[in-house]
Amino acid sequence: MEIELASHSGFCFGVRRAMKLAFQAAKKTRLTSAAASEGGVYSLGPLIHNPQAVDELGQRGVKVIENLNQVEGGRLIIRSHGASPSVLAGARKRGLEVVDATCPLVKKVQDLAKILRDEGYTVVIVGERDHYEVKSLLSFAGKGAVVVESPDEARELEAGKRIGVLSQTTQSMENFKMVVGELALRAEEIKIFNTICEATRKRQQSTLNLARQVDLMLVLGGYESANTRRLAQVSEQTGTETHHIETAQEINLHWLKGKEKVGITAGASTPDWVIEEVMRKIKTQPLFQPSFNLSSMA
Ligand code: SF4
């Protein structure tokens, strides 16, 4: 049995940067902990959508809070997904030092949303309405801005004169294309920015390429991670057996039965150590030994 890792997988630069800033903030807080008035280091919601990485951050002192009322003083790390201006203002008002880990690419989309709003376009964001990045984008896009998740939703949208379209950075290219196609039929004027980020595109493309060459795909990443779920969809659409898992412990050895080549891909918030553990588990299990009898797994 062969095993191959997708050419682009795991932490993207935005997530790597957010983790680094969080580790630095935690270290700074530990070093100054003598001054109790400094408070702790917090993230509003999990810093990234990966429970294993969030645990690691927790061990270093980064606490997850659900709202700003829970804290007074300390440092607040803004996630790579970004936050609304009112969250930033609220944090500063409560005496928190803001460590802005918003991905620069998400910031760019926030700026585009403002530009479209100021130019009088009705901003349409193609993405998941409950996702933090989309919520933060909406706060920059002005009144009347809407979120569209699918071509069906786009068909239900009232016709508009001037529509400005943006995408969540981790959207699938396929969905974006279909939604834009529908919107184009409903607008007198349409301005489109394809803001799907390069890291997302590369992960989707390399997942697609690999899924076409193997007979089993394992997609690694948090269940809450939008970009990981998208990789699983991309892989499933090829017809190749696909399993989305968070850790090596979830691998069911029966999946490997009779398979010649296993492909592995991982979302942009999946740490390297999770990928390595999965590779190790597969490589060290008995199916890699030529003498292994499959009936022993029954
Ligand atoms: S997926 Fe793209 S936009 Fe999102 S954090 Fe990573 S690099 Fe930034």
List its salient traits:
298 residues, Rossmann fold, Cobalt-precorrin-4 Transmethylase, domain 1, 3 domains, four-stranded parallel sheet, disordered C terminus, binds iron/sulfur cluster
Give an account of the 3D structure.
- This protein is of the alpha/beta class and 298 residues long.
- It has three domains: 2-10 and 199-297, 4-hydroxy-3-methylbut-2-enyl diphosphate reductase, catalytic domain (Cobalt-precorrin-4 Transmethylase, domain 1, 3-Layer(aba) Sandwich), CATH 3.40.1010.20; 13-103, Rossmann fold (3-Layer(aba) Sandwich); 105-196, Cobalt-precorrin-4 Transmethylase, domain 1 (3-Layer(aba) Sandwich).
- The chain has ten helices and twelve strands.
- It has helices spanning 13-31, 51-59, 85-93, 104-118, 132-141, 151-156, 173-184, 198-211, 226-236, 272-284; strands at 2-5, 41-44, 62-65, 75-78, 97-100, 122-126, 146-148, 160-167, 187-192, 216-220, 242-245, 261-266.
- A four-stranded parallel beta sheet has the order 1-12-10-11, sandwiched between helices.
- Helix 4 runs parallel beside helix 5 (132-141) and helix 8 runs parallel beside helix 9.
- The two termini are 19 Å apart.
Secondary structure: elements and pairs:
Elements: E1 2-5, H1 13-31, E2 41-44, H2 51-59, E3 62-65, E4 75-78, H3 85-93, E5 97-100, H4 104-118, E6 122-126, H5 132-141, E7 146-148, H6 151-156, E8 160-167, H7 173-184, E9 187-192, H8 198-211, E10 216-220, H9 226-236, E11 242-245, E12 261-266, H10 272-284
Parallel strand pairs: 1-12, 2-3, 2-4, 4-5, 6-7, 6-8, 8-9, 10-11, 10-12
Helix pairs in contact: 4-5, 8-9
Iron/sulfur cluster (SF4) binds next to helix 1, helix 4 and helix 8.
